[in-house]
Amino acid sequence: MAVSTKNKIYLSSPHLTGEEQKYVSEAFSTNWIAPLGPNVDQFEQELAAYVGVNHAAAVSSGTAAIHLALELLGVQKGDSVFCSSLTFIASANPILYQGAEPIFIDSEPASWNMSPRALEEAFSFAENEKRLPKAVIVVNLYGQSADMDKIKEICDTYRVPMIEDAAESLGATYKGRASGSIGTFGVFSFNGNKIITTSGGGMLVSNDEEAIEKARFLATQARDTARHYQHSQIGYNYRLSNVLAGIGRGQLKVLNDRVQARRSIFSIYERELRQVHGIDFMPEAGYGKSSRWLTALTINSEKTGVTRDEIIQALEKEKIEARPVWKPLHLQPLFKDCSFYQHGEKDVSKQLFEEGLCLPSSSNLTEEEQAYVILTMKQKLGI
Ligand SMILES: *Cc1c(COP(=O)(O)O)cnc(C)c1O
């Protein structure tokens, strides 16, 4: 185990193939070092084809894509937006950029994703108040799709558009359809820790051609068609660089392998640890296939005799990066005044946060490294 103890083992690290170089070199040799160019156009088309959506706009981050989606749906000051609570802050920050109010929705135990029951409750309350949200942001957590048919049916009943935050679920499926392809808008991220990366980047997808055209317009400072620089509305500098889009094109070619690798990593953890009384893995809901972007599990310290944080510390000592499950947004100081709808009697997302652990899941994690992570955990658990 000497090798594993020397190198730090990351939660989710970039995994390049060498294919990326070809597209990046092309950008250099043709002098397309700009936030537009052939790699950007091709990356958009290739990603749209992969997820089975007609149109895509490449942008500088997943956060930017969510922001543009909200802008396109007309979200503004005084509006409210429903959003999954158990997620990374980036899902909800753009609601604040628009001056709107986030309202958080709890998780369901079966998928750890947005609870249709809590969503329904939030909607009926909002309807009574005559204040329906302008949009619903549904997050597909750790590589797994939320229960989209149920959620979409509720959104459709109230005629509210759905944004699918698929930043963590590129490569996953829901009832055979690509994750991120179901909402009015889908959002992907190519940050360094995601399943494929451009070092930083994002994509907004939709079947609405006009909306995607508008997204590109807004992402390039909302410049009117005129020779002089003319602007009639607020815009952003959100386009993806042609160099980075080249990395994305190379990465997209191996996406299916990356999903396979992460799923195998998950099954090895599960095989080795599932018999531990008090450890439960994030379930895979029957309606789809998760990419298992991160292997997540819960540790019930009463049953295991060890807390989640003690496990993290033990791993840290061995230079292994592990993290708690996202701290739910309704528990964040930033959102302390926001409403939250929970899944029945229990705050599911809070419990997942208190007991949840994410383990190293990089697609380039070696067998030896993973064995070392498992060994370290078993030692701490005393088994
Ligand atoms: C990573 C992530 C984002 C944001 O993506 P960036 O490209 O880092 O801006 C949004 N939502 C979720 C759920 C994420 O995990």
Q: What keyword list fits this structure?
A:
single chain, 383 residues, alpha/beta, Aspartate Aminotransferase, domain 2, Aspartate Aminotransferase, domain 1, 2 domains, 8-stranded mixed β-sheet, 4-stranded antiparallel β-sheet, binds pyridoxal-5'-phosphate
Describe it:
The protein has 383 residues and is α/β, with parallel strands linked by helices. The chain has two domains: 234 residues, Aspartate Aminotransferase, domain 2 (3-Layer(aba) Sandwich); 126 residues, Aspartate Aminotransferase, domain 1, CATH 3.90.1150.10. Helix content is 38%, strand content 15%. It is built from 14 helices and 15 strands. The strands form three sheets. Strands 1-9-8-5-4-2-3-14 form an eight-stranded mixed β-sheet, with helices on both faces. Strands 10-12-15-13 form a four-stranded antiparallel β-sheet. A three-stranded antiparallel β-sheet has the order 7-6-11, with no helix packed on it. Helix 2 runs antiparallel to helix 9, helix 3 runs parallel beside helix 9 and helix 12 packs across helix 14. The protein is globular. The relative contact order is 0.19. Bound molecules: pyridoxal-5'-phosphate. The site of pyridoxal-5'-phosphate has 14 residues, from helix 4.
